[in-house]
Amino acid sequence: MRYLSLILLTSLLSSCITASHPSRSGSGGTSLARDYWGHRPGPQGFHTVIIDAGHGGRDSGAVSRHTGDYEKHLALDTAKRLAAKLRGQFLTVFIRSGDSFVDLDDRVAMASRQGGAILLSLHYNSSSSSSVRGPETYYWRVDSHGLATRIQRGLESVIPAKSGNLGLRRRRLRLTRNPQIPCVLVEFGYLSNAGEARLCADPAHRDRLASAVANAIRAQAQQGDAGTGPKPPPLNQPLSRPTDPAGT
Ligand SMILES: [Zn+2]
Q1: How many whole angstroms from 71 Cα to the centroid of ligand 1?
Q2: What is the pLDDT of residues 81-125, one digit of tens each?
Q3: Is there a contact between 54 and 191 (Cβ–Cβ < 8 Å)?
Q4: In whole angstroms, what separates CA 107 from the centre of its chain?
Q5: SS3 sequence, the chain?
Q6: What is the CA(234)–ligand 1 centre distance, in A?
Q7: Cα 185 to ligand 1 centre (Å)
Q8: Are 111 and 93 a contacting pair, CB within 8 Å?
Q9: Which domains does the chain have, with CATH numbers?
Q10: Which residues are bridge partners to 125 per DSSP?
Q11: How many angstroms separate the Cα of 240 from the Cα of each of 35, 104, 245?
């Protein structure tokens, strides 16, 4: 069973690799090898971007009562927009390229097999409070802080934050703690907020969000962590498990 699923994943991964090849070599960069903890500077000179569209298949993610939109569809649409913007400069790899269910731990395993890569997991948010809105960017590893900072700044240029950089959050999630490569999870906006749900339903808005993330990835590849502020402290916490209490 395990063997079969590995074969399935391997063939799925190779079939998902887009026909886009990097135009420059990844040599000379930092933090490009797989690393368990990620207590190191952020990556520079990487050439592979793994794009994880959140949810899929039987897992719809959030569903907006305002627009009827499913998070899984918006996430995949944004993933494809992001890949299109990176094409020609980076090799892009989709965790899922259709409406299929992929277990979180399998997403982690697929990402961790790639060397010289970063992982972006793309989501739309939901809250029991309909007034909550705004983009949030999650990271855990020290080597992911610079990229997360750049992404959050870019998203706030599209959707300005009310105050400061509250949308940058360090949280131990399976997609931020467990991959052995730099990884960032992006929540583009709250589908539970009427105004933001309508914004996110607009393809032009999703295109602006994808551009902001693409620009952040390009800046990180060129400049590493330069200009992204002090690094967070290294934290030796265990891998995130499905049985962990939410938000820990
Ligand atoms: Zn989600």
Answers
A1: 7
A2: 999 999 999 999 999 999 999 999 999 999 999 889 999 999 999
A3: no
A4: 12
A5: CHHHHHHHHHHHHHHHECCCCCCCCCCCCECCCCCCCCCCCCCECCCEEEEEECCECCECCCECCCCCCEHHHHHHHHHHHHHHHHECCEEEEECCCCCCCCCHHHHHHHHHCCCCEEEEEEEEECCCCCCCCCCEEEECCHHHHHHHHHHHHHHHHHCCCCCCCCCEEECCCHHHHCCCCCEEEEEEEECCCHHHHHHHCCHHHHHHHHHHHHHHHHHHHHHCCCCCCCCCCCCCCCCCCCCCCCCC
A6: 26
A7: 9
A8: no
A9: 47-223 (3.40.630.40)
A10: 190
A11: 16, 11, 10
- The pairing of strands 183-190 and 136-139 is antiparallel
pLDDT of residue 215: 98
Amino acid at 94: F
pTM across the whole model: 0.87
Instruction: Compute the residue count for the chain.
Output: 248
Determine the residue type at 166: L
For the stretch 8-50, pLDDT in tens is 343 344 334 333 333 333 333 467 899 999 999 999 999 999 9
Q: State the distance from the centre of ligand 1 to the C-alpha of 207, rounded, in angstroms.
A: 18
- Mean confidence (pLDDT) of the chain: 88
